[in-house]
């Protein structure tokens, strides 16, 4: 690039950054990241992506933009990783490529590669760790005992293969600590002292754990089942910033909903349920006008979420139900459940685009 091209690119990106700052949302940040990718300014894109992911952790738009960024930054790594798996396979080849796909949030590919690595090279711990990390992320999101048990089992199998993996032992100790398994957490933290006796982090964790009373459950499954029950009862907070905002102020949400209908030919109704399946807002009409239809949507969401978990696939986040007389579009974002109903005149692409912009931009403003 010439100095003039650099100057123009920097000016354009400066204008784009100011526009993003004036209406900051996952959607606007994603657009800025794409502009940076076009100008090969990966440093700026990574900076904003990291800020955005911390600020808006539940955003589909940011996740998609981050995937595009990582693909651009690591295009050569992806190419080399695929070649290694195809031409010179080994446990680390599967591990490195699986980790790269996990970083890109392409979890299906990451799981497929890590599972293949485990199948072919069962004595290498790395691929167990990739699978365990993904399963533990799902446990943190959904708080399901089965996910916690499988994550711990995979981490423990990795520990059996390498008892001096510091990062692994410390992470497993923290997981046990988070769910209340004091004895198990102490065991893993003390293993670190076997090869790193002066490690301050492990010593501090051990001191903290020894101050806690032992739990009263006989097995890890009982402990996790109790953890899941407390989550379901609302004793453990799960809602993020977005659902907390609208749970506290549903009137603010109700004022935004008519904007979703504007320009969407065939729009009929939108209903939003909160973290506890309570009716927060709807349009058209008031909450009392939509109470009956909200109950129907509650059952639909419960069935879709339960089906996804039972099938052990990705957690339900959206689904478009197509019928002769129109569409029903269900979405879950940060514990908010949004149902949009449109008639047969609605264009599917318009519906998806309108809802995407509303969820990724308007809700955050």
Characterization of the model:
The structure is a single chain. With 365 residues, the chain is of the alpha+beta class. It folds into 3 domains: 3-73; 132-238, Alpha Horseshoe (Serine Threonine Protein Phosphatase 5, Tetratricopeptide repeat); 241-364, Dynein light chain 2a, cytoplasmic (Beta-Lactamase), CATH 3.30.450. Helices cover 66% and strands 9% of the residues. The protein has a 5-stranded antiparallel beta sheet, with helices on both faces. A hairpin with a 5-residue loop joins strand 1 (267-273) and strand 2 (279-283). Helix 14 (241-248) packs across helix 15. 32% of the residues are buried.
Order of helices and strands: HHHHHHHHHHHHHHHEEHEEEH
The CATH H-level superfamily of the largest domain is Dynein light chain 2a, cytoplasmic
Helix/strand/pairing class, anyone? alpha+beta
| Count of extended strands | 5
Shape: globular
Could you name the CATH topology of the largest domain? Beta-Lactamase
Distance between the termini: 37 Å
How is the secondary structure organized here?
Elements: H1 3-22, H2 26-38, H3 42-55, H4 60-73, H5 75-87, H6 91-103, H7 107-120, H8 126-142, H9 145-161, H10 166-179, H11 182-195, H12 200-210, H13 220-232, H14 241-248, H15 250-261, E1 267-273, E2 279-283, H16 291-310, E3 318-323, E4 326-333, E5 336-343, H17 348-360
Antiparallel strand pairs: 1-2, 1-5, 3-4, 4-5
Give the key terms.
single chain, 365 residues, alpha+beta, Serine Threonine Protein Phosphatase 5, Tetratricopeptide repeat, Beta-Lactamase, 3 domains, five-stranded antiparallel β-sheet, 17 helices
């Amino acid at each position: 690039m010439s100095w003039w091209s650099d100057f123009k690119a920097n000016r354009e990106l400066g204008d784009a950054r100011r526009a993003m700052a004036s209406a900051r949302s996952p959607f606007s940040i994603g657009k800025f990241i794409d502009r940076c990718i076009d100008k090969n300014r990966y440093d700026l894109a990574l900076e904003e992506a990291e800020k955005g992911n911390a600020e808006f952790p539940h955003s589909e738009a940011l996740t998609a933009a981050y995937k595009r960024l990582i693909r651009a930054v690591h295009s050569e790594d992806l190419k080399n990783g695929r070649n290694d798996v195809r031409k010179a396979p080994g446990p680390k080849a599967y591990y490195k490529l699986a980790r790269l796909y996990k970083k890109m949030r392409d979890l299906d590919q990451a799981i497929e590669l890590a599972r293949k690595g485990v199948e072919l090279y069962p004595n290498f711990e790395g691929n167990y760790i990739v699978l365990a990390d993904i399963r533990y992320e799902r446990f943190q999101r959904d708080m399901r005992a089965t996910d916690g048990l499988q994550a711990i089992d995979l981490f423990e199998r990795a520990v059996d293969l390498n008892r001096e993996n510091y990062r692994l032992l410390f992470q497993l100790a923290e997981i046990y600590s988070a769910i209340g398994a004091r004895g198990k957490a102490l065991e893993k933290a003390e293993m670190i002292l076997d090869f790193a006796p002066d490690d301050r982090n492990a010593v501090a964790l051990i001191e903290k754990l020894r101050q806690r009373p032992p739990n009263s459950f006989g097995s890890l499954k009982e402990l996790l089942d109790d953890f899941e029950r407390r989550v379901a009862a609302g004793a453990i907070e799960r809602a993020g910033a977005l659902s907390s905002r609208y749970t506290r102020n549903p009137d603010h949400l109700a004022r935004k909903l008519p904007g979703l209908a504007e320009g969407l030919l065939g729009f009929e109704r939108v209903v939003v349920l909160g973290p506890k399946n309570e009716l927060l807002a709807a349009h058209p009409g008031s909450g009392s006008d939509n109470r009956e239809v909200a109950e129907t949507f509650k059952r639909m969401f419960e069935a879709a979420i339960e089906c996804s978990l039972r099938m052990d696939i990705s957690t339900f986040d959206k689904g478009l139900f197509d019928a002769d007389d129109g569409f029903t579009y269900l979405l879950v974002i940060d514990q908010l459940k949004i149902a949009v109903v449109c008639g047969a005149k609605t264009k599917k692409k318009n519906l998806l685009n309108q809802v995407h912009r509303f969820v990724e931009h308007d809700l955050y403003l």
